[in-house]
Amino acid sequence: MSTNIPNVQSTDELREKWMKPEVITGSEMLLRSLLLEGVDCVFGYPGGAVLYIYDAMHGFEDFKHLLTRHEQGAIHAADGYARASGKVGVCIATSGPGATNLVTGIATAYMDSTPLVVITGNVATTLIGTDAFQEADITGITMPITKHSYLVRDVEDLPRVIHEAFHIANTGRKGPVLIDIPKDVSAAKALFKPHTEPVAMRGYNPTVTPNRLQLDKLHQAIAEAERPLILAGGGVVYSGGHEELFKFVTSTGIPITTTLLGLGGFPSGNDLWIGMPGMHGTYTANNAIQQSDLLINIGARFDDRVTGKLDGFAPHAKIVHIDIDPAEIGKNVAVDIPIVGDVKTVLEMLNVNVPYATKADEWRAKVAGWKQEKPFRYDDSDEVLKPQWVVEMLNDTTNGEAIVTTDVGQHQMWSAQYYRFNQPRSWVTSGGLGTMGFGFPSAIGAQMANPERLVISINGDGGMQMCSQELAICAINNIPVKIVILNNQVLGMVRQWQELIYDNRYSHIDLAGSPDFVKLAEAYGVKGLRATNKEEAQAAWKEAMDTPGPVVVEFVVNKHENVYPMVTQGSTIDQMLMGDEE
């Protein structure tokens, strides 16, 4: 695709130019330092406290910035960029309200271990603490949701701080790092001394290489297990360990379930893959966890949506937990074999002489039988458009090769259930925080990171209205995201809970007053299409795929459809509501 925001390709000649030691402003130091970190697109929104920074961008053709229409759009786009590329996402906002508009996005990235460098402006150092105009203590506000924060008081510290921030964000358990730059620091001048050497920080040394004795214990446990199971999470994707995981699974012959954020970390077409576990997971995955005698957690954090009732989770299993973050091990579930280390490194070492699970033949057959007998099911219809059918159509017409981003709600779960991912970094969704408004802006970031790939943003009619203003930047910059809206005119997941748990007491979920999404798209200069049945859906989607550039496709779907299976709160994960099948 060809956008109006070309990426900057770092060359030796360009790097030499960016590293030139000369007296420049803090703002210029910032831009050069970002380029030296390999940043090829920054998402942001200007304001008073960052005007020196934006002034430095003027005429600086090497530096590429995408102006979003809301700060939250900027940070979600940076998040999508990071998840889809494996690089650090970067966003910029001004002080006060600009900075506080980033808070939800920072928390989203923190919960899902996404590497971001978040740059905010602040009032001048002489005004900090005086309740000056547009002053907010953003480092204090975000302390619980950042991996680290910097308040830069000396312009000479900027190159070092930026280099350290990227190192912290993208090593160990990855996450967001905030750099707060007062206005007088961005204006001050000093000799630019670029920092490009490896970072060594006292007190920050994540454990990468695991204890060999623990790996030997796991090898022995695999040899002895009769009902082993692998639970793989987002850590596999973040570490780049998907190939090592594939080798581990196929070498041991152990069935594998992947969490919501682990989708794509193992190919869904493989016979040993049994789907997603948890609240809306497969019958097979949930029962396999509950009946396993060895559960090997690789890069997942035993989230409550996966475990269900904790004191009834995997009651017969010896638990192994592999994670880069030692704080996660034993936090929610007691662990028998803890293994601290980078997932890719751990798997590389495990794969040396890893035993085949020879005692698990009967178990493999049992799990395969469940998978065959109890796939995801829904009652299809030729009269109303079913959202599950729409997602299946998207999967079939793209061969599962698109990058898919979602907002949060029923459409998110249907996308996870019915779109089949075969490669990592093809699935971008807010897991831990469950942030509405995330889906569409994150798709913009994913597309900027992968200009040649098809990016599909699947949204509900609720979440789309929290970020629809970003249609402007798709139109202006010709960013060819295909924006799908599953419109059921209701807050679907809330309605489902109110139906099943709150005895049909529907309270404040009606979205019938939503805009005409086709006209809304056209108002921004984006093609808009609508479908109300299968024939229209197929035709509209084909037109969208054939259109070079952004397209909004609204699928008007059944209002009363529920996501099944479903595990209600307080239940163990094998106590599933199966829906119409029941």
From TrEMBL:
Gene3D superfamilies in the record: 3.40.50.970, TPP-binding domain
All residue ranges annotated as the Thiamine pyrophosphate enzyme N-terminal TPP-binding domain in the record: 25-139
The keyword Metal-binding is assigned to this record: yes
Domain of life: Bacteria
Catalytic reaction(s) noted: 2 pyruvate + H(+) = (2S)-2-acetolactate + CO2
Thiamine pyrophosphate enzyme central domain mapped to chain residues: 216-350
Pathway named in the protein's UniProt entry: Amino-acid biosynthesis; L-valine biosynthesis; L-valine from pyruvate: step 1/4; Amino-acid biosynthesis; L-isoleucine biosynthesis; L-isoleucine from 2-oxobutanoate: step 1/4
Stretches assigned to the Thiamine pyrophosphate enzyme TPP-binding domain: 407-555
Cofactor: thiamine diphosphate; Mg(2+)
Gene Ontology molecular-function annotations: acetolactate synthase activity; flavin adenine dinucleotide binding; magnesium ion binding; thiamine pyrophosphate binding
Keywords: Amino-acid biosynthesis, Branched-chain amino acid biosynthesis, FAD, Flavoprotein, Magnesium, Metal-binding, Thiamine pyrophosphate, Transferase
EC number: 2.2.1.6
Cofactor binding note from Swiss-Prot or TrEMBL: Binds 1 thiamine pyrophosphate per subunit.
GO cellular component assignments: acetolactate synthase complex
GO biological process, one term: L-valine biosynthetic process
InterPro entries from the UniProt entry: Acetolactate_synth_lsu, AHAS_TPP, DHS-like_NAD/FAD-binding_dom, THDP-binding, Thiamin_PyroP_enz_cen_dom, Thiamin_PyroP_enz_TPP-bd_dom, TPP-bd_CS, TPP_enz
Pfam families in alphabetical order: TPP_enzyme_C, TPP_enzyme_M, TPP_enzyme_N
Family: Belongs to the TPP enzyme family.
Protein name: Acetolactate synthase
Organism: Paenibacillus kyungheensis
